[in-house]
Each structure stands twice: as structure tokens, then as C-alpha cells.
Design goal:
Layout (H helix, E strand, L loop, with lengths): L1 H13 L9 H9 L4 H9 L1 H17 L6 E3 L9 H8 L13 E3 L3 H7 L8 E3 L4 E3 L9 H5 L8 H27 L1 H19 L5 H12 L4 H13 L5 H27 L2 H9 L16 H6 L3 H15 L5 H12 L8 H6 L1 H26 L8 H10 L1 H12 L2
Antiparallel strand pairs: 1-4, 2-3
């Protein structure tokens, strides 16, 4: 009898622990299917938003790329061959490719045309009549070449990019609040519509400040245009599938989107068409309420129990697996109870373990993003071909995330 009791105890010890009774959603997902038909569809539905995110994040690099071969424009010499007028007017142009891109000889151009000799030794002055550009490295007109944002104006495009990231900071805070207040789906819709509006607005700019404001508005959607669907999908997927879902969605959709960005730029060869091609598709978000489920956790936290139950029943129908009645009844009871747990940021900061974890996440995210962003932003100046360098930098993200997916759970 004693041996039998011991055998039963050993068997109980070897059994996997049941899911925590308080985490009802985890138990429901286990019953309805951790990676069923609906979850697979949700994974696929992440694709457009991964593309929208990478389009918004990188498009300014392509519309504001600077052709490296440029020099001061001299109206009196425009009837001459390109190489000849450059050699006659630009200091150092005769000696090689490292000519002075921001200064021109202060000369009597009528006399220069008579002698057809560069006025070597003449004083130089900054460009007075704009610049000429060779489109060997960037094979289309960009905002920079169109508006002469080089030399003393070279800081304009980086400033606009900085304001994009300021917008991202504001947008993440704002749409995070919207997601908590009104739901993940409304936040997703709002972020993408703002991004589309800012992108289209870019086409109607003509100066520095209107362009910068337009890029700030696009920045408001950065991250938020994709993170909300990311949160929803991760919630509805079983815990053992979350590693590959979270990493492979970034690898395939964001990494693939960066490669698609290069193809679009080289196909369209027009910065305005490129802005339209990367902004207007964001309107796709208007159809998401037809297929994208709202977060059941969020619905339950707001007391919208019936909507949460209906959302879970949709999973039952699509996955063809039912949720036990007693588990659903338990979910309804728990969801109907008013939570007494403080889930505010103040509570996070007050808890030492949570506060330390938050600080570590902030530092790690900043370091990681700085490394990734620096490599991408330097694509224009690393090597001789911006598009090739950007492609290689972006493509390296795919095997890196595949490696993370394979080893993270180990």
C-alpha cells in the first residue's frame, strides 16, 4: 500500500504543472488551439503592417538621398558640354573627382568663354545660382537635388529626419494611450491614417518647414502603425509559438519590406511617386475591423464581457475547437469582476523588479535601435552604391532574426 502511494506521488511530481488558474486567457488559447487556422491567418495579416512600418521608417532615405556628384551652377556656361562647364568653373574639377562642390570661381565668364581656360587663381565664392547634379549614384531627382539642400543647406534633410523621430516619440505615447483607452484596433487605424496623411502632405511641400512638419506627422505613425496588430496577434497565439511568430514576422515582413523599398525606388525613379506608393496603401487599414479581432484582454478589462466572449467564439468557429463551458463561465465571472490591481506606470516604477526590468529594456532597445539605424542611415556614404549597401544591410536582418528564433527558447 505504501509503495502504491509513493508511485502515485512520483507520477504527480512528473506531471507538467497546470497553467496558472489566474491566467484564464492562456488556458482558453490552449483549448481553442495555440496555432490554429485563425492564428495562422492573423500571422499572414501582419504582413501589410510590417511593410507600412518599414516604408514609413525608410522612405525619407530614398526621397532625400543626396547625389554625391554635384557642383555650383553657372548660368552663363549652360550651353556648354557638362564636363566642360564643370572644368571651367569649379576649383579642382580638372584634377580629378574631388572637386569643390560648394564653391565656384568668381570670374568674368565672358572672358572665360573667350579663352576656354579655367580661371585658376581667381577667388572663389559660394554657389549663387544653385547646383548641378549628376545622377549616377541616385538615378532620379530627390527632394535634396530638387531644392538644393546641399553644402550650407545640407543639414535640412537630417533635421527633418530628426523631427520624424520626435514625431515617433510623441506618436508612441499618444497611440499607446489610445490603445489603452479606446482599443488596439482603433489605435492601429488611427496611426496608419495619420501616416498616410503625412505622406501625401509631403507631396505638397515646397520649403523647409512644411517638409519638416509633414515628416513629423509621418513620424507619429512610426512603430504604432504595426505594433498594435503585433500585440493582438501575440495575445491570441499560444506561448510556445510566440518566439517564432514575433521574430519571423519582423524578419519576413520588415526585412522583405526593406528589400521591396529598394525595388520600388529603382522602378518608379520619382520621389513623388515613391511617396504615393508607400503612403496610399496605408488606407488598407480601413478594412481591418472586418477581420481583425480586438484584444479580448482589453475588452474584459473595460467590462465589455459580451464582446470578449463573442471574439473568443469566433476563434472556436474558425479553429473548429470548442472552449469548455466551465472555462468560459470562469472567464465571464473573472472578466465581470472589477480589477483591484494597479496597472499604471506609477505601479511599475514603484516596484523595484519591474522598474529595473523597464530600465534594462529601455537601454537595450536604445542600443539596438542605434546600431540598426546607424547602419541603415550610413548606407548613403558606405561604399559606392547606396542601393546595394542598403539592400545588404537590410537583408542581413533576415538571417539574424532566424538565428534568434532558433536559439531564443533554448
Amino acid at each position: 500500500m505504501t509503495e502504491k502511494i509513493r508511485e502515485e506521488e512520483i507520477m504527480r511530481l512528473n506531471e507538467p504543472p497546470p497553467p496558472p488558474q489566474g491566467d484564464i486567457m492562456e488556458r482558453i488559447i490552449t483549448e481553442v488551439g495555440e496555432m490554429g487556422r485563425y492564428q495562422r491567418w492573423l500571422f499572414v495579416s501582419m504582413m501589410p503592417f510590417g511593410l507600412f512600418f518599414i516604408f514609413a521608417y525608410t522612405v525619407q532615405m530614398f526621397i532625400a538621398a543626396t547625389p554625391q556628384e554635384h557642383w555650383c551652377k553657372v548660368p552663363e556656361l549652360q550651353h556648354l558640354d557638362l564636363d566642360l562647364r564643370r572644368n571651367l568653373s569649379i576649383p579642382g574639377a580638372v584634377d580629378g573627382p574631388d572637386w569643390n562642390r560648394c564653391e565656384v570661381y568668381d570670374a568674368n565668364w565672358t572672358q572665360v568663354l573667350q579663352t576656354m581656360m579655367p580661371p585658376v587663381g581667381s577667388p572663389t565664392v559660394p554657389c549663387r545660382h544653385g547646383w548641378e547634379f549628376l545622377y549616377n549614384d541616385i538615378p532620379y531627382t530627390t527632394v535634396v537635388s530638387e531644392r538644393g539642400w546641399v553644402c550650407e543647406n545640407a543639414g535640412i534633410a537630417p533635421f527633418a529626419q530628426t523631427m520624424f523621430f520626435v514625431g515617433s516619440l510623441v506618436g508612441c505615447a499618444f497611440f499607446g494611450w489610445v490603445g489603452d483607452k479606446y482599443g488596439r484596433v482603433p489605435a492601429l487605424i488611427g496611426a496608419n491614417l495619420i501616416g498616410c496623411f503625412g505622406g501625401v502632405l509631403t507631396l505638397f511641400t515646397s520649403g523647409v518647414w512644411d517638409f519638416t512638419i509633414a515628416r513629423f506627422i509621418v513620424g507619429l505613425c512610426n512603430d504604432s502603425c504595426a505594433i498594435m496588430i503585433y500585440i493582438i496577434v501575440i495575445e491570441y497565439v499560444g506561448s510556445r509559438h510566440r518566439t517564432w511568430i514575433s521574430n519571423m514576422s519582423i524578419a519576413v515582413y520588415c526585412g522583405g519590406g526593406a528589400l521591396l523599398m529598394v525595388g520600388l525606388a529603382l522602378w518608379l525613379l520619382d520621389w513623388r511617386h515613391l511617396v504615393l506608393a508607400t503612403s496610399l496603401p496605408m488606407l488598407f487599414v480601413l478594412v481591418t475591423p472586418l477581420y481583425l479581432p480586438e484584444s479580448a484582454r482589453w475588452l474584459a478589462s473595460k467590462g465589455k464581457v459580451n464582446k470578449a466572449v463573442n471574439m473568443l467564439k469566433k476563434f472556436e468557429k474558425v479553429n473548429r475547437r470548442g472552449i469548455p463551458d466551465d472555462l468560459m463561465a470562469e472567464f465571464i465571472v473573472v472578466a465581470s469582476q472589477k480589477s483591484t490591481v494597479d496597472e499604471s506606470l506609477r505601479a511599475v516604477v514603484a516596484s523595484k523588479p519591474l522598474r529595473n526590468s523597464l530600465l534594462v529594456l529601455i537601454v537595450v532597445t536604445m542600443v539596438g535601435n542605434l546600431g540598426i539605424d546607424a547602419i541603415l542611415r550610413m548606407s548613403e556614404s558606405i561604399g559606392t552604391n547606396f542601393f546595394l549597401t542598403f539592400t545588404l544591410s537590410s537583408a542581413s536582418e533576415i538571417p539574424a532574426l532566424v538565428l534568434v528564433t532558433l536559439v531564443l527558447d533554448k
